[in-house]
Design brief:
Layout (H helix, E strand, L loop, with lengths): L8 E6 L4 E6 L18 H20 L1 H13 L5 H32 L11 E2 L2 H7 L9 E8 L5 H13 L4 E8 L9 H10 L3 E6 L11 H14 L3 E5 L5 E2 L2 H5 L6 E3 L2 E2 L6 E6 L5 E5 L14 E4 L2 H4 L15 H7 L9 E2 L8 E2 L15 E2 L2 E2 H6 L3
Parallel strand pairs: 4-5, 4-7, 5-6, 9-14
Antiparallel strand pairs: 1-2, 3-6, 7-13, 8-15, 9-13, 10-11, 11-12, 16-17
Helix pairs in contact: 1-2, 2-3, 5-6
The structure holds uridine-5'-diphosphate and manganese (II) ion.
């Protein structure tokens, strides 16, 4: 159910005195509407009941594992609330999908990455289109990828940030993670630290690098994002592009909810825009009219983590990337979104702009005890915290 569009599921529990009918709408948006009817059983209804039983059997076969999961609950309790049954069904189905995709990924992991040799410094690696289709078979059946483009750079908290980011991505089903290391620091090479986290995430990934130019150095991560865009275009699989910085906090459900964006989608974000949250506001028809934010003076008041766009923009404009010549300082997001749509009403609101699944995290202060002189397992504190196991 999760991640699919407008599936209607009907469950019927036939008892001697009543039929219960449960309709579930739009599981994709997480919005469930319950309808319960209670009737005395008549002959007509019994025939109808037989028809329904056959339909139910078909559905049960399709969701057999899910039903196996909730069957004991139905059998042992007559006081189960219908809504809890439906929610359990959704949960169970999501778990099945996740397990299926995990199995598929693990089956392919060694085949895809066997060439990696730890003794060499890592060089660019891009999981190929063929391998993505192998690892995520539902892409061939029209499933859309979510490309998560993450610029990153060498620092004390890099391992913390990338590990924290990789785990919600591992819980999502059709994600391609593009991590681009900023190698602007003199003499730096791509790191095993980053490659190992990518490798162990078991998701299709690209690991590449970028270097800041004098012009782009005002815009943190912009070269990395543009390198990510080049990789998305090269891969050529349809989907959605999302700029996910490495230092923020993500709920894995975000990646399920944005994959069907048609052009540009926007949503509410936490701790962003110099405030507790930012959110698009809607009129009574659900059209975006404005953005609630403490950082005014922007047409699109969104954080980098608060919007995503369809790869279709490359069909209209194959050269599209983040153009720093047209990027205002501190307003990179506004500049990017403005280059894709001109009116706020064109932005597609995700979850009615009412659910927060992303939080912009402030940089934590480094504890005072941090010192390059303290040794632990032969490593200084900096190396200890960043070491790969
Ligand atoms: N970043 C980078 N090179 C840098 C500084 C930052 O690649 O020199 C990346 C960083 O890892 C993050 C993104 O760019 O993914 C945004 O940087 P940061 O979180 O420092 O910016 P802020 O959130 O404070 O705007
Ligand atoms: Mn940040």
């Amino acid at each position: 159910v999760v991640g699919q569009r407008s599936k209607n599921i009907s469950l019927y529990e036939t008892e001697s005195t009543q039929d219960r009918k449960i309709n579930l709408y739009s599981a994709k948006t997480g919005y469930c509407k319950m309808m319960m009817t209670q009737n005395k059983t008549s002959k007509k209804q019994k025939r109808f009941g037989a028809f329904i039983a056959i339909a139910l059997l078909t559905i049960l076969t399709y969701f057999h594992l899910a039903i196996l999961y909730i069957a004991p609950t139905i059998a042992t309790s007559h006081h189960v609330k219908p809504e809890s049954m439906v929610l359990e069904l959704i949960e169970a189905n999501a778990r099945i999908q996740l397990l299926e995709s995990k199995v598929a990924r693990q089956r392919h992991q060694s085949r895809v990455y066997q060439k990696y040799n730890v003794s060499d410094p890592p060089s660019q690696f891009i999981t190929s289109k063929e391998n993505v289709l192998d690892m995520l078979p539902s892409i061939s059946q029209g499933g859309r990828l979510v490309y998560v483009i993450t610029p990153t750079y060498d620092r004390l908290l890099q391992k913390l940030d990338l590990i924290r980011m990789s785990q919600p991505l591992m819980l999502s089903s059709l994600v391609y993670w593009i991590v681009v290391e900023d190698l602007s620091n003199k003499g730096s090479t791509m790191s095993h630290r980053v490659r190992k986290i990518l490798f162990e995430s078991n998701i299709p990934f690209a690991h590449s690098s970028s270097v800041k130019t004098e012009d782009s150095s005002h815009f943190r991560g912009v070269e990395g994002r543009n390198e990510g865009i080049r990789i998305v275009k090269k891969l050529g699989l349809p989907g959605v592009v999302y700029f996910g910085d490495d230092d923020n906090a993500y709920d894995y459900r975000l990646f399920e909810e944005i994959r069907n964006i048609k052009r540009v989608g926007v949503w509410a974000t936490g701790l962003s825009g110099n405030g507790n949250f930012e959110a698009c506001s809607l009129d009574s028809n659900g059209i975006v009219t404005d953005f609630y934010t403490n950082f005014r003076g922007r047409k699109f008041g969104v954080d980098m983590g608060g919007f995503a766009f369809s790869t279709d923009v490359f069909i209209d404009n194959p050269e599209w990337n983040i153009n720093i010549a047209h990027t205002a300082r501190y307003k990179m997001e506004d500049s990017i979104v403005s280059s894709l749509i001109s009116e706020v009403s064109q932005a597609e609101p995700i979850n009615n702009c009412s659910v927060v699944r992303f939080w912009h995290m402030a940089k934590p202060s480094i504890p005072k005890s941090y010192s390059r002189k303290v040794q632990m397992h032969g490593r200084n504190e900096h190396k200890f915290l960043l070491a790969t196991d």
